[in-house]
Structure formats: structure tokens, C-alpha cells
Amino acid sequence: MTAPRDDSRLAEVRAGAPARWHDLETAQALAALGSDAAVGLAPEQAERRLAEYGENVIQRGETVSWLALLAAQFRSVPVYLLLGAAALSLGVGLLPGREPQYTEALLIVVLVLANAGFGFFQDFRAERAMEALRELSTPEATVIRGGERTRLPATRLVPGDVILLEEGDRVPADARVLAAQSLETVEAALTGESGKLAKESTPVPEDISLAERTSMVFMNTDVVRGRGKALVVATGMRSEVGAIAREIQRPDARHTPFQDEVDRLGRRLGFAAGLVIVVVAAATWWLTAAGPVTTLMLAITLAVAVVPEGLPAIVTLALAIGARKLSTQRALVRRLAVVESLGSIDVIVTDKTGTLTENRMTVRRLWFAGAVYEVAQAGDGMELRRDGEPVEPARVAPLLRCGAIANDAELGGADGRGPSGDPTEVALRVVAERLGVRPEVERLHEVAFSSERKRMTVVVAGEPRRAFMKGAPETLLQRCNRVLVDGEARPLDEATRAELTRSIEAFAEDALRVLACSYKEVAEHELADEAALESNHVFLGLQGMLDPPRPEVRAAVEDCRAAGIRVIMLTGDNAVTARAIAAQLGFESARAATGKDVDALPDAALADLLAATDVFARVSPSHKLKLLRTLQAQGHRVAMTGDGVNDAPALRHADVGVAMGQRGTDVAKEAADMVLQDDDFVTLRDAIAQGRGTFDNIQKFVAFLLSANVGEVLIVLVGVILGSALFPDAFAGQPEALVLTPVMLLWVNVVTDGLPALALGVDPRVPGIMKRRPRPRGRGVLDRRVAAYAVGIGVALTAAGLPVFFTTLGAGHGLARAQTQLFSLLVLGELTVLQVIRAGFGQRALSNLWLLAAVAVSLALQLAVLYTPLAQAFGLVRLDGAAWTPVLLALAALVAVTAVLGQLIEGARGPAAPAARETAARPGQTTGPEVERARV
């Protein structure tokens, strides 16, 4: 029954005041918010409060509106230069004997607007794509609504909700602790205190500091041990972290390292272009009769044409599109630059359970009182057998009972909800349930499981009071001095220990994960002494469970090897089990190393061991971090998977930290760069392929941009120099005699750098992308081969275009026709070169329908300029069939030359990867005595 509401406290919550909840008894807090610890809020009551309080989110401060994005397009040096050029066109009318150039000024303004439109579209799409990614990454919370336990987005929590917290959760809202079992949190993000803080339901004094409020948990802090139940008292901006956010709100304008690299590239290209522009302007002034206004406008136009002001926006858009594609493939990227980083990964260090296997544990074999039993499926239930014959489950009831009691999993109920909890614990509950063992006990005390302890202990009421412990066999055997045989606790002698060791190895050789169970009678004074509680136990037996490998993983591991990516498997299982599973998955290592080996070896020997071993057993999070640092010290770029609280350091320091979406803790997800929503290794392989494809798209755009810019600058510069030498009368005698006018150059950039460049961002990855070596560390977007390729294409554009221009001029057809042919060739050439560049990266011509549509639109615009009254405004003439012949011949020659140059890009994309890693030791290879001793 819901407690009567305390309206004064609820009024404080509504007002957003920092209401005091830590000094209230749990019943008072529940009454204040009209909630119930067992039932929570009714769904309709929660919906009303959501409408009243709003979503549980920390506001990000200013958001970027479409109007601000549009205005930003006009705040750049190239735009200022163009508008200055338009003003010059009008101002020239003030000179004696000159008329204002209204048409040219209008065209410049129109082209500025067109460029701004393309820039706005790029930025708008990137911003919306990033917003969509933020929405996809919304965390979830476990809440009791209407008496039912459910998972829902944390944004929908309201004051009065009852939430459940477990190790690894990120606390979704400020909440009053109602119940706690070994509950500890880290609140460094809020209080600055990095240590663990124990939480309990007991009220604390009203005037105590925030860091000492042990009866409270706070939004965005982490649960690092135990579990608990809490009452939400403040959400969103009303929370403690929300109060801090109000003080420091500002737009997030951080750049990733990759974006910084792109910015540096843009600045370098701009600086180089500036030098060329000075040379072009000087040559034009010295070698032609062009006046100062024409020369200045030509220099301004080249500056606008060459400076890659759109490069950062295109890169951001390409990364956002890549991230969006990954999200449709069940891989959620939390930082855009990760899309690029994925393409250079050369080592994957992956957990076994759930990533390489199905994470669907089933108990298959038991050891109890010296006998081995098989657990077989029997219809919808299970059957216990010994030597192939059915036996009564009562024979092994103590073992099954222990596994079900030292357990936090839930089996679900008649409402259709299935089992929930850790898959290992679910397997123990299911086998006990289906073999008729259903212990109903009162839990008095718990010592929670952790990756370091590798065990869990639960004390239950009764006469006598007993503690049940489950965990790794070697850990429990150290804490047992007796064994249960025929209902009696007998001394655990060396012969029995040896028999148990043989059974553990036999279970493991059949790829079974092995857990041991034990118990002891507990005296009152031992409840507060963890060491005493977990010593002198009676050994009950072993439970062996199978987690079958995912059928598609073996092929995915082979794909990674074909891509030059080494895969290393980590597991908490013993070495024998790890070796058996690894063999099924196709791992090369004939042996497995253990966490103890990692601890014992010095750095040099550990590096040798890593070079020879792909399988590591009995590892803990600290071992993960040590292995990661060793690999990175060798120059590798490492993707590391993890799911637990203590995996966070390794995930944070990995080149790409990968958390599990289904079984991963909130802390792991927050530390990671990417979340696999299906926990599947195949998804990680596909994400790496997508990362390589996205980087290819960025390189294609840079190569295209640079080749076009080089071609335009060279055409103007070389054209002026050769024109003044070959046709001195034409170039020295006419003030407006130029190879290409400023308006023509602006138009070329609009139709080629606009829609086609945008469409490059959605190019699909090429089929053979996972046959290359990973990109070496330090190789940027514009490496030597790509730069040489782009410059070569620019030179080819110049070599194809200028002969057409000068041949027409020499034949006496006039400057206008020569400019029109060169102008048309430049547009067609750049659009054709775009496809040649794609082919150089292994891309099929018809693989991107968006690009084909963009090229078609650009061609239609070009024809409109040539064959409508717009031609006069651009200073063009209509081209007949004969005039098109030299243009098309030059275009064919350009395609042939650039196709040959395309061979250069093969090295930039990376050679084919070796079939297996070159650094690995082969079977039988000597790796040194220290390493051999370390291998199991």
C-alpha cells in the first residue's frame, strides 16, 4: 500500500530546492514522495510526474540552431574575400572610362549563396547525425513500476521511482538508499573523493557534508560493489550534478585529435595555396595587360577556390555518417573519431564469454561425493544421469542447493518475463529448479563476488545458521578442509584433492566452465569477519557448464587475420577450458598462458610471451591493462573489449575501448569508445571494416579536393605564362584576357565540390577492404602517395586542358570559345576524375547511386550555363559538335593518364595482409626458457 504523501517535501522537489533526504527514515522518504518500496509508482502516476518534472537529463547548455549554422557560413575569410570582389566589380565604375560590372557582381553573390547553401547542408546533416547518436546512447535504469521490475531509459525516471542498483551501474538520479548489500560507490565525479564509499539505509545527521551522506547515492556516480534499492528524490537539473551543470554550462566545442589533424591539413593547404596565389597574381600583373582590379579579383577567386574551408565539415559529416551506419549494425560509437581509429586497429584483445561464445550457460556435468553425473535435456526439463542411467536428483541436492542460494539471478514468473542476471548464475538457478531443488531461505548477509575474489558467499537463517560459497575451484579448495560424502563432512585429504584436480581438468578439457560449491555452519561472531566466514568450509562439489561458441565467430576471426589483425582471447576460465574453446574457434596457440604468468614475468619476457600466445586464462582486469600497455609499447593499435567495473581503465586507455551492450556495466560503457549492442565479435569485425571504409571516403575527398585545386592553379599560372609567350597580342593587348575568369573558377567549385563531394561520404566500403594490412600508426589523411596521386591528377588536368585552349586560340576562334572549351573540360574532367579516384580505392563505378545522382545534377547545371541565357553572364559561347571534339578527346586522354596514376594509390591503401601474423611463434618454435616456463 502506498504511504500517505508528505506535501511539504514534495513541494521542495517541485521547486527544485536542494531538499534534505539523507536525514529521513526510509519510511518517511517514501511517504514524502507517495511511493512504496515493493511496488514503486504506478505507471500512470509516473507518466504524470514525467510531464510535471520533465525528462531526467542534464541540459547541455546552448544548442546550435539552424539559423546559427546558416549564419556561420558567412563568417569566414573566403566569403569576406568574395564579397570584397563583388564590391570591387561595382566600384570599378568609379574609375575613369569604366562601367560597373553589375553582372559579375551579381554572379559572385549568387555563387556565395550557393556555397553557403552547400556548407549549411553539410553542417546541418552532421549536427543532426550527432544528435541522433546522442539519443541512441541514452543509458537505461532498472526500476520497479507497479510492482514489476523493468528496464527503461534513465531519462524517464521521476521522483518517487524505486530503482535497483548493481555493481557496475551508473547511478541514474539522486536517490535515498532503501536497502543495501555490500553497496559501495565512487563519487569522484561529484565530490572529488576517489575512494569507495559504503552506502546503507540508516539516516545521517542533517548538517553533514555531501561526501558523508552515506544514505544517499547521486546521479552520474558509479556502483563499484554490491547491490541495493533506492528511492529517486531528484532528477535532471534538480540533482546535485545538475546544480553544478548550471554553473558551468557552455556549448561543447571540443575537437577530436583526428579533427585537429584535418584542421592542420587545411591550414597547410591554405598556406601553400597562398604562396601560389601570390605567384599567379604577380605573373598576371607582369605578363598580361590585366589591370589591378582584374588581377586582384583573379587572386581572390583562386584563394577561394584553393583554400579547403569545407574540409573539416566534410570530414565531420563523413565520420557522422560512418557512425550512423555502425549504429544500424548494432555498434554504437560514443566519439566520432573512433570511426577513423577503427580503421588502423591491428590487434583485438577480446573477452571470451558472450563475445566469442553465445553467453548461454547450461549446466552439463556435476561432481558430488566422488561420483560424476551428467545433466541431460528431457523435454522441457532436465534429467540427472550416471553412467547413462537416470538417477534421482535428490542424490546431488546439497550441491544444487548451494548453487541456487549463493546466487543473485532471478528466474522470472508467470508474467512471461524470462530469467535475468549473470548467465552463470542463471544456469545454476535453472538446473536446480528443473531438478526439483527450490530453496526458500532468508538471506542474512552477503559477501559479493568480484573479479579479484572469484567467489561469492551468502549467509542464510536457520538452525544451524549456514554460509554457502561458490566460485573458482582453486579458490574454494584453498578454503575447504572437509568434503561432504554420504551426508557426512569428512577430512579433505590429499588423495581427494588430487581426485578433484583430475575431475576439474577433465571437465575443462571438454570445454566446460567449472564452478565449485561449499558451505559451513556460522557462529555469531563470524558474521562480521569476512576471513573467518570464508574459511574451514565443507567442499560440496563441482558444476560444469557449457557456453557454446557462436557459430559465425570462427569465420570472423579468420577474416581479422586476413586483414592483418591479430586476435587475442582472454577468459576467466582455467587454462584447459580456455584451450578447448580456443581450438573450437580456430585460434593458433597450442597453449594458454595464465594471469599468474602475466604477473610473474618481467616486461621483456611478457612481450615475448604475447608474441607467441593468443589465449590467456584466469585473467583479471589488472592483467588486461598490463597486456594492453605491453602491446601499445610495441607500437600496436589495440581494440580492447570489457564489461565490468574494473575493466574501465583498460577500456579508457585502449586505442578503441569496446564495451558490451547487453551484459556490460554502465561504468564500462561510459569508459568505452564504442558499445556492441549485441555483444558479438562479428559486430566488432564489421565495425573495423566500416572504419576502414570511412577513412577511405575521407582520403578520397582530400585527394579529389587537392587534385582539383592543383589543376585550377596550374591552369591559370601556366596558362598566363605560356599565353603571354605564345600569344602576346591577345594577352598583352586585352585588359580582360585571362585563361579563366574569376566567375568561371567559382562556378567550377560550386558544381564539383558541392553535391558530388557530399555524396562521397556515403560511398560503401569496397569488398576487399578486409584483405589489406591495417593503416600504420602515424599515417595521416594526406600521406605521400595520396599527395603524389592528387598532384599528378592536377598536372594531368593542366596537360589536358591547356592544349585545347591554345589550339582553339591559335586557330583564330577567339578567346571566348577557347575559355568555354577549357571551362567545360575542367568541369567534366573533375567530375570524371572523381570516379577515377574512387576506382583507385577499389570502388565500383555504380556502387553509389547518390553520387551518380549528384554528378547528373552537376552536369545538368553545367549544360544550363552553356545553353541558356546564363552563358552571356559567364562570358561563354555556345559550343557546336566540332567544338566538343577536342574537349572529348582531351577528356579521354585525361581518363587514361589518371587511371595509370591510380596505381599509386594501391600503396596508400595498404598492401594485402599476410595470412597469419608474422610476429607469432609457430608450433615448436623456441621462444626462450622464461617464456616456455610461463606457458601452460
What does this entry look like structurally?
With 936 residues, the chain is an alpha+beta fold. It has four domains: 7-60 and 140-248, Calcium-transporting ATPase, cytoplasmic transduction domain A, CATH 2.70.150; 257-326 and 688-909, Calcium-transporting ATPase, transmembrane domain (Up-down Bundle), CATH 1.20.1110; 332-357 and 550-679, HAD superfamily/HAD-like (Rossmann fold), CATH 3.40.50; 362-546, Calcium-transporting ATPase, cytoplasmic domain N. 49% of the residues lie in helices and 16% in strands. The chain contains 35 helices and 26 strands. Strands 10, 11, 12, 13, 14, 15, 16, 17, 18, 19 and 20 form an eleven-stranded mixed beta sheet that branches. Strands 8-26-25-24-9-21-23-22 form an eight-stranded mixed beta sheet, with helices on both faces. Strands 1, 2, 3, 4, 5, 6 and 7 form a seven-stranded antiparallel beta sheet that branches. Helix 9 (257-287) runs antiparallel to helix 10. The two termini are 59 Å apart. Residues 915-924 have a biased composition (Low complexity).
